Amino acid sequence: MTTPSSAPTAPLVVRTVAVDLADLPLLDLLPAQEPVSWLRRGEGLVGWGVAARLETSGPTRFSDAVKWWSETVARAEVEDLVGEPGTGLVSFGTFAFADEPGDSVLVVPQVVVGRRAGRTWLTTVSVDAPDLAPAPVPDPPVGLVFSDGARNGDEWMSVVAEAVGRISAGDLEKVVLARDLIATTDEPLDVRWPLRRLAEQYEMCWTFHVDGLFGATPEMLVRRERGLVTSRVLAGTIRRTGDDGRDMALAATLARSSKDLEEHEYAVRSVADALEPHCSSMNVPEAPFVLHLPNVMHLATDVNGVVHDAATSLQLAESLHPSAAVGGTPTAAATDLIAEIEGMPRDRYAGPVGWMDASGDGEWGIALRSAMVIDGGVRLFAGCGIVASSDPEAELAESQAKFVPVRDSLGAD
């Protein structure tokens, strides 16, 4: 189902110019109403307002979005005086994990401010240029209380044990199981509060917000830029202790863990297989590296390629989704098992989230370390890769570690 709820009735008039904002953090510009963001290490894109918007759902959600975006781009009148990836006409998107349930959204902000390599620009879409001044500091959530989501810890461990049994019986090789946590608040959340804290604490991740979905993802599903494509694969996790010496030893343990290496191999293989039809050449490292984040460490591999066809970044994201890192192996068996035993709707958790420009270049992350703003609060998500050697108690502890970024971001200073 496709609903262009704010479809442009006339061609979008787009203008991008360079601006001098010195060292002003981009998140400081965001107003409370309709903000979007995609930032890493202080660079990226923020925006606000809605010039055009598409809502879609079901198995055609990606192709619906590609068609709508192509038509919107074709009708736009663009003056781009900067010429960087992310300038000119840009859309932000967030897509449901599964065909059902969950809506997917593609939105064109009225105002976008971008920064890359110290260069900052302003894009306006059919509106006058705004006064780029810092917005008032957002307020923290009031009356924050956490409670179990669809399943409590014991119930979720039982689900993990069921999955291990299915894997041991030969039904599949790996499945990723998720759980949720509910945070209630006395007043509606100002999403700029957790965004600022996530950007500060997890600067190596991509801090995002699109249509109520926010988080700080460490995993780049796909980046397409001027003919080059990159995908960062994460699978295999260990929790940090806060002791540098102990954490270095744990990193070495993770790099040798047969369980985690097996899980990681499935994920890398699924990404490489999905990208290969679109690439004339590819580089797939033989061994992963350990990515150190404030709360956990991951086995990570960067897969790179040269695109030889006209596939946009969103089309590449569709071909990759769901990878083994968020679904499992084989994909069909894993997603069927998720639907059977996980016991909750994922909505947009673990789906693609990111942006795309008029050329089709863009960046799409996987909506991990994420949460969805709901009536009365926030719904947090965490997932773990389950293989034959998985231990339910250890997986529960890993899921709790993955809640930490968003959970901590909601608290007061």
From TrEMBL:
Swiss-Prot/TrEMBL keywords: Isomerase
GO molecular function: isochorismate synthase activity
Domain Chorismate-utilising enzyme C-terminal stretches: 154-402
Reaction equation(s) it catalyzes: chorismate = isochorismate
EC number, UniProt record: 5.4.4.2
Signal peptide (UniProt feature, chain positions): none
Catalytic EC class: isomerase
UniProt family annotation: Belongs to the isochorismate synthase family.
Protein name, as recorded: isochorismate synthase
Organism from which the protein derives: Nocardioides renjunii
